[in-house]
Amino acid sequence: GGTGSYVFDLISKTRVKAIKLFDFDVLDLHNAFRVPGATDREELGQPKVRVIDRRYAGWHKGTQAYEAKVDGGSEELLHDVTFAFLAVDKVDARREIAKLLLARNIPIVVVGMGIHHGSPGLTGMVDTTLLDNQTPAGILAEIVGDELADIPDEYQKNIQTAELNALNAAMAVFMYKKYRGYYAGGASVCQASFTISSMQLDREFSN
C-alpha cells in the first residue's frame, strides 16, 4: 500500500540481502497516488507486490514478492524473517500478525495513521512503534491489545496523503536503523507520534 511501499523504497537502498513483500491486494487507482514513482495505466488491477517488484527489479536483487495474506497461521512464510515492518490498516489483522512475529522473537516496526477533519483541513497523527521483547506493556497494549477496534477515519477518503505515507515510512526506517546500530540511540525510543496540525513529535522511551 502507501506507507509500506515507501518503506520498501528506503529499505531497497540498504545492504540487506533479502526483502520479502507480502500483499494479497491489487493496485487500485487510489493506490497510485500513495506509492513512489509514476503508475502506468497497465499496472492498475495488477497485484501490488508484483508491480513494486518489477519496478525495483534492476535495483535490488533480493526482493521476494508474495501474493499472500499473512495471518496467525503464516509461520512458514516468515521462517527466515529477521525483522518486519507492519503496515496494516485493520486492527484485527495487525494484532494477529504482530503476535505471531513477537512469538517468534522477530522485532517489528508498526506504522499507522489516523486522520480526521479539523477546522479547517485534515488533522490527526502519524504513529511509528517498535515492538520487541523489551517493549513496555503499555505500548504493546496500544498496538496489539485485545480490546482495540477499528475506528473510521478520513484516510480512505482522501488520497492526497503521500507526504504522510512517506513521513511514516521514513520514521519507520529511521527507527529500524537505530535498532540495528546504524544511527545512535539504539532502541531507546520505542514510539514516535507526529501531530499533523502542530507538527509536534512526541516520543515514548523503552526505559
How are the elements arranged and paired?
Blueprint: H1 2-11, E1 19-22, H2 29-32, H3 48-55, E2 63-66, E3 84-86, H4 91-103, E4 108-117, E5 122-131, H5 137-144, H6 162-179, E6 189-195, E7 200-205
Parallel strand pairs: 1-2, 3-4
Antiparallel strand pairs: 4-5, 5-6, 6-7
What structural category do the secondary elements indicate? alpha/beta
Biggest sheet, strands in spatial order?
A: 3-4-5-6-7
Estimate what percentage of residues fall within beta strands: 15-25%
Rg to the nearest angstrom?
A: 17 Å
What would the principal axes of the Cα set say about the shape? Answer: globular
Indicate the CATH topology. Answer: Rossmann fold
Average pLDDT works out at 89
Low-confidence stretches: none
How many structural domains are formed by the residues?
Answer: 1
Q: Tell me about the biggest sheet? A: 5 strands, mixed
CATH class: Alpha Beta
Name the helicity range. 25-40%
- C-alpha termini separation: 33 Å
CATH superfamily: NAD(P)-binding Rossmann-like Domain
Structure description:
The protein contains six helices and seven strands; from the N terminus they run H-E-H-H-E-E-H-E-E-H-H-E-E. Strands 3-4-5-6-7 form a five-stranded mixed β-sheet, with helices on both faces. The protein has a two-stranded parallel ribbon with strand order 1-2. Helix 1 packs across helix 6 (162-179). The two termini are 33 Å apart. The chain has 207 residues and is an alpha/beta fold. 29% of the residues lie in helices and 21% in strands. It is globular and about 50 Å long. It has a single domain (2-205), classed as Rossmann fold, CATH 3.40.50. The model has no long low-confidence stretch (mean pLDDT 89).
